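Notes on consecutive records. When two proteins share a document, each keeps its own sequence and its own token line. Never mix them. Below: protein one.
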Amino acid sequence: MSTEEIKVLRAKILEGLALSYKRLLLAKQKEDGELVFSKKGKLFG
């Protein structure tokens, strides 16, 4: 893969992650759910 192809692929992956996160937030808002994150075993959110 060329450097340009890697940049395009990376951009598409990041765009997909952002879209997935946005959809998750919207789903949690609709069901009045809770979204909790964990970092190194500690919960926050």
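Protein two starts on the next line and is unrelated to protein one.
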Amino acid sequence: MEESNHSFEKDLEQLIKLFKKIRERTSTGEFAHLDPMFIQNLDFMINNYEMVKNSIPPEALDQMAAPFQAILRQFIDKLKQELGEDFDTEEPDVPELNEERKELLNDVQKIDMMLKNPGLSEEEINALLDKRSNLMKNKDQ
């Protein structure tokens, strides 16, 4: 992968981390003034990014990176400035997960998304929770 793609991916990851931190702070009341639709959109972006981040082909990143990266970096810098210094998103490098473990985590995230559907019956919810529980057991082994 080219260096520009790597830094573009890092910028996307950093943006999602900022969104997650904003989302976390809404539950403490710090950002209670935010519109509920905005919060819902944050959740949507975070969850969808987590589901597709490993499936974005390098060619797509090549096409998006150059024109979009400068705007993305400006947005991240402005967001950090508005939110304060404690919104630092730099984290220590974490070892790369193997593909099997990534797939398990991805499956758990998909189930979590499905569980948010308000139209599920009790049986469907129980089946999804059982499946999620089994996946989590496999994840820890």
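For the record: DSSP finds five helices and no strands in the chain.
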